[in-house]
């Protein structure tokens, strides 16, 4: 399973913010932001803080991308 945070990065651009701004305003660690940059898993608490900071819903910042194994099993 992988996550895509492409929507988040585009939303930051639209809001004229960068990852450092997100770190400071949402009070999330730089490690969490780096993990998201690699499409990794972060806690729902991190996603909640980001959504509150950006005034958005989770579907506005993250997409689920199934692994090839997940698709083949169905």
Automatic annotation (TrEMBL):
Residues 7-67 form the HTH cro/C1-type domain. Gene3D superfamilies: lambda repressor-like DNA-binding domains. It comes from the Bacteria. Coiled coil: none annotated. This is Helix-turn-helix transcriptional regulator.
């Amino acid at each position: 399973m992988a996550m895509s945070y492409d929507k988040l990065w585009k939303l930051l651009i639209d809001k004229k913010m960068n990852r450092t701004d997100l770190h400071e305003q949402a009070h999330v660690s730089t490690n969490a932001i780096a993990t998201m940059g690699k499409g990794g898993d972060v806690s729902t608490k991190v996603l909640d803080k980001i959504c509150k900071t950006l005034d958005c819903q989770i579907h506005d910042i993250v997409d689920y991308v199934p692994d090839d194994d997940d698709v083949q099993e169905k």
